[in-house]
């Protein structure tokens, strides 16, 4: 999923509030299947981006560990997101450990919102080959 999007900038916007500027790689292979000729960012990918951004600024974040989402209290996918690398997207995150809220938007639309809770941290070892993850 790391190759799917890139965090370009992170700004702290107050106590427990951050804004991430992200870009989506519109050439990623995920769009060959979702949907051929008419690519859309899958909702689960938007949820993953929001969770990953929240995990990066979590008070209990630990290097080389990944935060695990325990509960998704609500998630709304409000508008289709067509991938375009040159499009500026923002993800706003507000944390109140272990809970967080996040939203994905640009200057025209709000694409998704999510309220969730983290379970804790889990040791993470990246795969040596991307193909290993999919087999």
Topology:
Layout: E1 5-12, E2 17-24, H1 30-33, H2 43-57, E3 65-77, E4 89-96, E5 99-105, E6 110-123, H3 130-134
Antiparallel strand pairs: 1-2, 2-4, 3-6, 4-5, 5-6
Summarize the structure.
This protein has 135 residues and is α+β, with helices and mostly antiparallel strands.
User: What structural class results from the helix and strand content?
Assistant: alpha+beta
**Strand count, sense and closure of the main sheet?**
6 strands, antiparallel
Q: In CATH terms, what is the fold-level topology?
A: Thiol Ester Dehydrase, Chain A
> CATH H level: which superfamily?
Hotdog Thioesterase
The number of distinct helices, counting runs of at least 4 residues, comes to 3
Low-pLDDT ranges: 122-135
Content of β-strand: 35-45%
What's the rounded overall pLDDT mean? 84
Q: State the order of secondary-structure elements, H for helix, E for strand.
A: EEHHEEEEH
List how many beta strands DSSP finds. 6
Helical proportion, percent range: 10-25%
Number of domains: 1
Q: How far do the termini sit from each other?
A: 15 Å
Main sheet: strand order = 1-2-4-5-6-3
Keywords:
alpha+beta, 135 residues, Thiol Ester Dehydrase, Chain A, globular, 3 helices, 43% strand, 6 strands, six-stranded antiparallel sheet
Write structural notes for this entry:
The chain has 135 residues and is of the alpha+beta class. It has one domain (2-122): Roll (Thiol Ester Dehydrase, Chain A), CATH 3.10.129. The chain has helices spanning 30-33, 43-57, 130-134, and strands at 5-12, 17-24, 65-77, 89-96, 99-105, 110-123. Strand 1 (5-12) and strand 2 (17-24) form a beta hairpin.
């Amino acid at each position: 999923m790391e190759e799917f999007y890139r965090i370009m900038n992170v700004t702290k916007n107050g106590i427990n509030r951050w804004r991430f500027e992200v870009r989506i790689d519109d050439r990623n292979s995920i769009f060959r299947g979702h949907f051929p000729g008419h690519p859309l960012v899958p909702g689960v990918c938007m949820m993953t981006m929001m969770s990953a951004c929240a995990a990066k600024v979590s008070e209990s974040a630990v290097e080389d560990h990944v935060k695990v989402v325990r509960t998704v209290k609500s998630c709304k996918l409000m508008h289709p997101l067509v991938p375009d690398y040159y499009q500026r997207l923002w993800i706003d995150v507000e944390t109140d450990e272990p809970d967080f809220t996040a939203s994905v938007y640009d200057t025209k639309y709000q694409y998704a919102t999510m309220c969730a809770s983290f379970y804790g941290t889990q040791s993470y070892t990246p795969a040596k080959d991307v193909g290993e993850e999919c087999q």
